[in-house]
Amino acid sequence: MTRIALTVNGSRCEADVEPRQLLVYFLRDQLGLKGTNVGCDTTSCGACTVLVDGESVKSCTVFAVQADGCEVTTVEGLAQGDELHPVQQAFHEQHALQCGYCTPGFVMATISLLKENPNPSEVEIRDGLEGNLCRCTGYHNIVKAVQAAARAGA
Amino acid sequence: MIPAAFEYERAGSVDEAVALLGRDEDAKLLAGGHSLIPTMRLRFSRPSLLVDIGRLDDLRYVRENRDRIAIGALTRHAELIRDPMLREHCALIGEAAALIGDPQVRHRGTIGGSVAHGDPASDLGTILLTLDAELVARGPRGERTIPAAAFFSGPFENALEHQEVLTEIRVPKAAGTYLKYVRRAHDWATVGVAAARVDGRVQVGLTSMGPTPLRARSVEDALADGASPADAAAHAADDTMPPTDATASSEYRAHLAQVLVRRALERL
Question: What residue in A sits closest to B101 (Cα-Cα)?
Fold first, then answer.
């Protein structure tokens, strides 16, 4: 076991982990943060996207030990009380989801995209979210939500 | 899919990483992990010790070094894309890095990790071979420089010895372009083509056309003899061994290489 200390959604936490423990399973099984989903399990679908030090990563392809000392943000860390994060609000208002399984990953990828490019064009949004798959084929409204979030200054 | 169990050590310096690698003949280096971790999850790879060099931030840089650009091995793909020095002096590196995986992968994956992993379908290896880059490695007996032409020895094989750590990549200042054909978003190249003007000579490299990145020497020679881009590109598949797989047949890849080489030469 390896001792790690990191900040998750603003709270400091320390834990003993097996080195082979993947970040997504650490978040889900050890911390109980089940908003981050496991989709393809092969670095393709982006359902497990979280922020590590502010940048989007696929948490199925990062060992928990690699996040030692880092700041991790999951979808649970976005809302302030009852107030949704502007990107969550935009996904809600634009109906950018059907089944919702991919949504936490899309929201986290969008936050990272808008941090790097606050006013993306439609093409830049589609390219910027190429690491996330929606099998309900809801991309049209997802793009609209990202545009709305950008307008709202998310 | 959970990887097989392994021991984990985080190296605080390159020299410490070299020493840790010496402890176990099945040890492997972990940088961004975006080639290694997927192969470990599929259990294609089961190292008994992972030596994590991901925190060696002194290997994350792009610097001008007289007529060349030196790139630290742990520089991430996202950093290659936005680096102003590379954009000015060797733009095809950022151009190719922008085509690797997706944003999440580019936030973690490193140039050194990609090149050392040695996937014949990876883009940056082809770029380095095309540019006649030099790769700097440090091992127990000190540092050595390996020309790109001597680096790639087979699929997932290279000239690095077990205890050597790739630390820096040196490329010439060169105008160039990289074209990559994929059939799905964030896929590996069905075929990729690099073309660059190095010291006045046009050099051309190919991705996914054999067990390693390849140079299209017949194309280069034809251009040196004054052939047009279209005539030179007809030689793109000469001396290659394009694989047949689920994405494309060998014949299709050979055809694609000719088309992409012509386009790349016309853009150059």
Answer: A131
